[in-house]
Design goal:
The protein has 1 helix and 9 strands, in the order βαββββββββ. By secondary structure, it is mainly beta.
Length: 144
């Protein structure tokens, strides 16, 4: 276990996405436009008409790549994650109209249905990036 402290919280960025927007691409555009290098997604809600999530397939190393793709009306229950070196790493939970819930890492191809709203709080005085660990093959946060 490791931990790092950031300085005072910086700007707060509110992002609205509309029907047909790619969720991750839109968030990345906002992060790039506002030059947010480090931050926390503190709130995210949405509806998706298409969703692609990366999922854990087993408990051993190295991890295997698994993807869940859904194409139906989905209620996004939550979105949260960290932005490090300008790159969002986000997770979410989605629910189908029959109440089934799925979760995982948000991948490109999650398409907004009615709306999406995300709040990002910028962190200052911290520099981190994700570096692939040579033992586990998992990209882990490390100080820059």
């Amino acid at each position: 276990m490791q931990h790092w402290l950031a300085g005072p919280l910086g700007r707060t960025c509110f992002i609205r996405m509309d029907n047909g927007d790619d969720f991750l691409q839109s968030l990345q555009t906002a992060v790039d436009t506002e030059a947010i290098q480090f931050g926390v997604v503190i709130s995210g809600i949405a509806t998706f008409k298409k969703c692609r999530l990366h999922q854990v397939l087993h408990t051993s190393y190295p991890p295997s790549e698994g993807f869940l793709e859904l194409e139906e009306p989905l209620e996004v229950m939550n979105v949260d994650g960290i932005i490090a070196a300008g790159q969002p790493h986000l997770h979410c939970t989605v629910a189908t109209k029959d109440g089934k819930a799925y979760g995982g890492h948000i991948e490109p191809g999650c398409i907004v249905l009615y709306l999406a709203e995300v709040c990002v709080v910028e962190a200052s005085d911290v520099q981190m990036q994700r570096i692939k660990d040579t033992t586990t093959h998992v990209a882990l946060l490390r100080p820059d």
